[in-house]
Amino acid sequence: MSLKRSANTSSSPGAAKKPKANGSITSFFGAPKPKDGASAPNASAPPPPPTVKFNKEKWVSSLTAEQKELLQLEIDTLDESWLAHLKDEVVSPEFLNLKRFLKKEKESKATIFPPESDIYSWSRHTPLHTVKAVILGQDPYHNFNQAHGLCFSVRPPTKAPPSLKNIYIGIKNDYPSFEAPPDNSGLLTPWAERGVLMLNTCLTVRAHNANSHANRGWERFTQKAIDTVARVRTRGVVFLAWGSPAAKRVAAINKQRHCVLQSVHPSPYSARNGFLTNGHFKKCNEWLSERYGQDALIDWSLNPKKSVFDQKPAVTTTGEDKQEGPLATSKLANKGPLDVAAAMGDDEAAIKVKTATPSVTTADADLLCDEDDLDALEALAAAEDDFSAPKVETVNEEVIVKEVKKN
């Protein structure tokens, strides 16, 4: 897999004045493209601010010989937009110990997934300045031709795993024009390239051994990446946290600045307790549209010939609701279906949960899943050739969609 071009570029050379931080919507996404016959909104707004000044060559020259050896992968493959903010973390004792552990794993001839060149593919597909939304996973899939650095995503010709199939159902409930990819594919790089950061808690795993690299240091590093998004993307992004482990990762996020959407995990073990009808994909777009306008919407389609917007989403944006300030609140932010899902049976919740929007607090974290570690169970299921988890009820997509339409 070829590495994407570094995103550490400067602002337009034609800019006459230094842009003011957070001065407008264009400080987040850049100026929207004008439609035919219409002038671009905010046409007089300044261009996006330049990225953090980072002299990579100078930083590399400051490393010790051992640091250079241990961090060669980060030097070569971690996108500079991220490295500029994580450079202190990668030279910390904890991260260097993680790299020593991984070096020993490699020397022992253990098979590690994803392939080395893909460990940081999330950073190259989604440079820091492009992040609109964040989807959090946990452990990489641990069989051949599966993990490639993006959570929930698998390489073709591998079929979509159970959790991803349920994600597809959730999108179809929000956008009826959505179609699953041909051949039931599970490659999610189009989302990543549209600004959806797809980050696992652990970035590596030993073959056929779920969670084998847990508690070795990746958790601290990826938490720093999450915190970097929350700190740097000052005008706000959407965090989608599915399941208890993901909820804990976003517990400290500023919910006045960012939108945090929480629900049960899409695993077959819990999806019918609220995930399938949580409305997260449309809520994500509603929040982005409310704050930044229609140009910020994420097309969740994986079919290059058909957008989910072929059927227009019901975006509730009005002039007076438009958010201008970097710390503006949103009536659409930080809502979830937890209380209803917990109080009802599975079938009843699947139909009615879409109408409930109670506030989510850290005290609700344990309600977010049926298992302590759903992603680990998913990884175990992923080891099977057919991606089927034993004794797990499968979900009929047509039935769920019909249930939603009735209501």
Fold and architecture overview:
This protein is mostly helical. The chain has a domain of 184 residues: Uracil-DNA glycosylase-like domain (Uracil-DNA Glycosylase, subunit E). It is 33% helix and 5% strand. The strands form two sheets. Strands 3-2-5-6 form a four-stranded parallel beta sheet. Strand 5, helix 10 and strand 6 form a beta-alpha-beta unit. Helix 7 runs parallel beside helix 15. The longest helix has 15 residues. It is globular, with a radius of gyration of 21 Å. Its EC number is 3.2.2.27. Keywords: DNA damage, DNA repair, Hydrolase, Mitochondrion, Nucleus. It holds the Pfam family UDG.
Set out the fold topology.
Elements lengths: L55 H6 L3 H6 L1 H6 L2 H11 L2 H15 L4 E2 L7 H5 L7 E4 L25 H13 L14 H5 L2 E4 L5 E2 L11 H15 L5 E5 L1 H6 L9 E5 L16 H13 L45 H6 L2 H7 L21 H9 L14 H10 L1
Parallel strand pairs: 2-3, 2-5, 5-6
Antiparallel strand pairs: 1-4
EC number: 3.2.2.27
Protein name: Uracil-DNA glycosylase
Enzyme class: hydrolase
In short, what is this structure?
With 407 residues, the protein is mainly alpha-helical.
Task: Give the helix proportion (percent range).
Answer: 25-40%
Which superfamily, in CATH terms, is the homologous superfamily of the domain at 113-296? Uracil-DNA glycosylase-like domain
Largest beta-sheet details: 4 strands, parallel
What's the N-to-C terminus distance?
45 Å
SS content category: mainly alpha
How many beta-strand elements?
6
**Computed CA radius of gyration, to the nearest angstrom:** 21 Å
Strand order of the largest sheet: 3-2-5-6
Task: Please state the average pLDDT score.
Answer: 75
